[in-house]
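Dear colleague,

Thank you for sharing your sequence with our group. We've completed the structure prediction you requested, and as agreed, I am returning the results in plain text so they can be pasted directly into your records. Please verify that the sequence below matches your submission; if there's any discrepancy, let me know and we will rerun it promptly.
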Amino acid sequence: MRAENNVIARKLFEKAVQASPKNRFSWHVWALFEANQGNTDKARKLLKIGHAVNPRDPVILQSLALLEYNCASPNVARVLFRKASQIDPRHQPVWIAWGWMEWKEGNERTARSLYQRALSVNSTNECAARCLQAWGVLEQRVGNYTAARRLLRSSLNINSQSEVTWLTWAALEEEQGDPVRAEEIRDLYFQQRIEVMDDASWVMGFLDIIDPALDSVKKLLNMDRPSGQVMQQGRNRGITAEGSSTSDLDSGTAEGSSTPNLDSIVDRRAAYTREAESDFDVDGFIRRRLALDPAELDAVLEGSDPGVISQRRTRRLTRKPLPLLPVP
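Please find the predicted structure tokens below.
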């Protein structure tokens, strides 16, 4: 079932980039999907393509930097983090991710300076809460427990719903040999969580927003009706959104599929045994639609124009003679 879903997801990503070749979200999310599947080389190429068509997007460079660090290339990751921070110095997640990497590499002083840079952008938003929590973990690991407590409390002052921060603080107290205080912190977390959940006005307001959207989605996907009624409606229309005939819908129903229109995208039966090889030519596509040479993606990433070799030439300016002064 998982292999089947992967094939369907990959086909949908391919259709997404074909429909909107310069959409940064399509290339980015597809790359993250491939990285999660262990296809590091393909994920790297997709991120480079996404950067080539969106050179001012720091998020793609941040993901590429983390991918390179995961592949044991911290120096390459530093170059990418620096480039992303230069593109948008106010993008806090870049500074936080960079600081996390430096901490993992044992560079605590550099990590602290990067966390400070992130907080200098904004010290009261959700990113600041995550930054303070990460900084608190750093201080805990190096033994600065007083600083760690202060940072974790500051993070909770911004976002009191962070389970990770509460449990990190409780673990710190247990590590310090104070299990009573650790249990008090856990009780505080569950108490404030119950208080938020018991707020009926907040719950009703949230459901009032969600329910109409769910009804619309159900009607769009025909989820409220049996599959037989869906098939009958498909026969009446004669064609699906993907351009498939009614015979395709009949075959999808025979296979017992609840979403027969996906059969026009991928052969679901072939995915039960192994993931089918995709016939989508990424290199050919970016050549035709984006005028990109796959061999020049690294050059684009480095900031140079693909196919153009620039050489610096030093030119000596000729010295102009001084004007002659008139003789009195």
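Summary note from our side: The chain has a mean pLDDT of 76.

Kind regards,
the structure core
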